[in-house]
Specification:
It is built from 2 helices and 9 strands, in the order αββββββββαβ. The chain is mostly beta strands. β6 and β7 form a beta hairpin. The longest helix is centred in the N-terminal third of the chain and has 9 residues.
Length: 108
């Protein structure tokens, strides 16, 4: 919680009234088990991506190759420090391997 609140304090425009919300496509056999979206400031800066699992009791910890389509660019996990980028589609299993939710910030 501390890392998320610190990120929010450093990037308030992504969470301010009028910020943009964009659902992100999740594809694959277990797509119904993930919710993904991007938030950004009205100017388009200060991007953050959130990926959250849902209906986990039926998931059995098997993502079966399910992917999420991230916006273009490089991303860094706010909670884990892991870096993602280059590929438009990222495996949900990779994003959620170290923590049960993923919060990604645009890498600078």
């Amino acid at each position: 919680i501390m890392r998320l609140l610190a990120y929010r304090a450093r990037h308030p425009a992504a969470f301010a009234p009028g910020s943009l919300y964009q659902p992100l496509p999740v594809s694959g056999a277990k797509a119904e088990h993930a919710v993904a979206f991007a938030r950004s400031a009205a100017s388009g800066d200060e991007n953050v991506v959130v990926i959250v699992p849902r209906l986990v009791a039926r998931l059995a910890d098997d993502w079966a190759g399910t992917t999420v389509e991230l916006p273009a660019g490089a991303w860094t996990g706010v909670l884990t420090g892991e870096r993602y980028g280059g590929a438009a589609h990222v495996m949900v299993a990779d994003l959620l391997s170290r923590f049960p939710v993923a919060v990604l910030a645009r890498a600078r």
